[in-house]
Amino acid sequence: MVFLNGEFLPQKDAKISTLDRGFLFGDGVYEVIPVYNQNIFKLTEHLNRLDGSLRATKIKNPFTGNEYKNILTKLLKNNFAKNQTIYLQITRGVGESRSHNFKNLTPTIYIRVDELKIRNKNELVCGFKAIITKDIRWNNCYIKSTSLLTNVLYVEMAQANLVEEIILEKNGIITEGASSNVFILSKNTIKTPKINGEILAGITREMVIKSAIATNLEVKECDIKTSDLMDADEVWISSSTREVMPISQIGDKTFSSGGEVWQQVYNHFQTLKSE
Amino acid sequence: MVFLNGEFLPQKDAKISTLDRGFLFGDGVYEVIPVYNQNIFKLTEHLNRLDGSLRATKIKNPFTGNEYKNILTKLLKNNFAKNQTIYLQITRGVGESRSHNFKNLTPTIYIRVDELKIRNKNELVCGFKAIITKDIRWNNCYIKSTSLLTNVLYVEMAQANLVEEIILEKNGIITEGASSNVFILSKNTIKTPKINGEILAGITREMVIKSAIATNLEVKECDIKTSDLMDADEVWISSSTREVMPISQIGDKTFSSGGEVWQQVYNHFQTLKSE
To answer: Residues B129, B144, B170, B194: which is the catalytic one?
Structure first.
């Protein structure tokens, strides 16, 4: 069962007009929210970020926090996996034709729930491969928009190169992963790119920072040159489905992974999931 | 009547799954093709450009040129406007869930026809307003992709500023308009940004170049600095719906519009429409 514009219905019946601006223009925003043991994780933070994306794109937020909560609770009751992931998309709505005019439309709201498959600690310790490539995305990646073709092409690149993630650089500075935030560990200091309009303020990123501080690491949000990353002791990426994942190889260069520092941060991270 | 995945049906019945990757990821490409007096304009060129966009995004082209032609002919028979505009969109298709995996899907094809409203010469001569802003789009604008949120935001900016078009600059160099190509006239030479991966190879742009050459103007495809544009004698923009349109004001600066040189190019342009 999914939610579409006020109705709960089977996925096979969830259809939208070809004139929906989400379909014609990628004119929408979304959130992905993890659910651990039927507990929606940081719902307020995710709804706040959603509201920020809607404001930036001038799409009206159709629901209050409580209305979202009621819909999500009903959807989650019909899904029995231990951990789940909520996908929530809002588009500007259905126009009368493929016109660029878009005033006063009724937003389209689509929500679905899937099982969240999280890799366990044993699967993470050995680390995963990545490659670095040029960040060619638009400049406003702080907006979580459905105009995601660049990301689709990065996923294709990752699959073709048999790597887990594509790490992006712009003018020699690391921005983020194609669907993750990036951290480096250098001499017991954790560094991660500072939040600006060009990267997403990851909610998992915040948890990793919190976990690193809790384990007495120094954390710096600062510019990271590509060369800093390649010279780092360790590289990690974070996202709601990957949590905090060690990167063991970038191109030909190998990195230490799953060491004591990472284990401490990972362990503390787990305790935050029941917050 | 519109065309959707092999069927001709009323627009109100043209529905797609919410799992269509065009809706979830802006994972599709499109073309807009003018039709003058029931004559499809430069169909081969448009289909070639479509094929280029499909290759760049690794989406399979579902039809041959003749198959497209047959579908378009049938659609056009049901529309009686003098001039028409074909909108043709292809997405990667419907996935099983919102997964980034996308191998071996069947592309979604949606085509609709609307009346093409072209401004006549009298409406054009006085010129239109524009403003210049930073080009924040992704780097591969040669692909005509449906991930168009940036363009939607530029349209909103144009409406808020009561201007016809937003002209884009990157690092002090003009790229193109939000939905047009840009030309300047300086001392009887026409200049337009040269085609590279960051701008669309407009088919109307080619016609304007051809018309300018036919009327004995020198044409240079080269970098145009923002200051060159502001110092130009005239500024024009081109697109299939605007043809060749004079810009009479950018910010506070006014420009001459509708003069003899523009009239010659405009007149020659009209003769190319029956090619």
So the answer is: B144
Q: What is the pTM of this model?
A: 0.95
Map tokens 């799953």 to a residue.
Answer: A258
Share of chain A above pLDDT 90, in %: 90
**Distance (Å, whole) CA B171 – CA B179:** 20
Interface of A with B in 57-86 (CB under 8 A): 57-58
The structure tokens listed for A74 are 């009903």
A135-159: pLDDT as tens digits: 999 999 999 999 999 999 999 999 9
**pLDDT for residue A275:** 75
Contacts for B120 with CB less than 8 Å, ≥ 6 apart: none
* CB contact residues (below 8 A), chain B span 27-46, against chain A: 27-28
The pLDDT-based confidence of B99 (bands split at 50, 70, 90) is confident
Q: Is B19 on the interface with A (CB under 8 A)?
A: yes
Q: What is the ipTM of this complex?
A: 0.96
pLDDT tens digit sequence for B193-232? 999 988 999 999 999 999 999 999 999 999 999 999 999 9
- In this complex, is the C-beta atom of B115 within 8 Å of any C-beta atom belonging to chain A? no
Distance between B147 CA and the closest CA of chain A, angstroms = 4
Which residue among A60, A69, A103, A144 is the active-site one?
A: A144
Nearest to A172 by CA among A144, A138, A130, A132: A132
Q: For this structure, is B144 an active site residue?
A: yes
Rounded to a whole number of angstroms, the distance between the first and last alpha carbons of chain B is 27
- Which residue reads 């360790």 in tokens? A234
Q: Residue A178 in contact with residue A158, Cβ under 8 Å?
A: yes
Longest dimension (CA), chain B: 59
pLDDT at B108: 98
Kind plus residue range of the DSSP H or E element containing B29: strand B28-36
Nearest CA in chain B to A12: B17
**B110-167 residue pLDDT tens:** 999 999 999 999 999 999 999 999 999 999 999 999 999 999 999 999 999 999 999 9
Residue B144 near residue B200 (C-beta atoms within 8 A): yes
Residue A171 burial by Cβ neighbours in a 10 Å radius (0-12, 13-18, 19+): exposed
